[in-house]
Amino acid sequence: MLRRRLFTPPSNGRCSVSRSSILKRVHDRKFNGRCFCGLDVTLLQPGTAMNPGRWFVRCPKWKTSDCSYFVWVDKTEGQWEGLRRPVSKRKMHEDVLEAEAEVKMLKKLGKIEAQVSKLRL
After folding, report:
1. Among residues 61, 16, 6, 54, which one has the least CA distance to residue 38?
2. How far is CA 70 from CA 81, 94, 98, 104, 110, in A?
3. Residue 88 pLDDT exceeds 50
4. How far is CA 8 from the centre of its chain?
5. Is 58 exposed, middle or buried (0-12, 13-18, 19+ CB in 10 A)?
6. Nearest by Cα to 51 from 105, 93, 111, 1
7. Which residues contact 52 (CB under 8 A, 6 or more apart)?
8. Total Cβ atoms within 10 A of residue 31
9. Phi, psi (5° rounding) for residue 36?
10. Which candidate, 1, 4, 2, 6, places its Cα nearest to that of 85?
11. CA–CA gap between residue 48 and residue 29 (Å, rounded)
12. pLDDT digits (tens, 9 = 90+) for 4-30
């Protein structure tokens, strides 16, 4: 799972909350950017085949506390307007990092190809 702390959401709106299990029951809850523990939620993106690229928020202490706060971000569409821009910015940032890594790799490849052609002469 790729863990990314990205955004503390605004303190208004409604959303659907789902328990952390394979079959999730959805409950309507008031969303205020904090989990049931009162902590700021963490925005994450799973690295699983079951939910590729699907963003969610949960309690930052989910492993050590009894807080079961979990929300799929797409369940809040239209209700959590402030999230769309940060997610888009994060995606753009990841795309830039990926492109920079590709350029760096291509430069290295060009140097290696130049060395190989010198050795052939």
Report:
1. 61
2. 18, 24, 29, 38, 47
3. yes
4. 13
5. middle
6. 1
7. 46
8. 22
9. -65, -20
10. 6
11. 26
12. 444 444 444 444 444 443 323 333 333
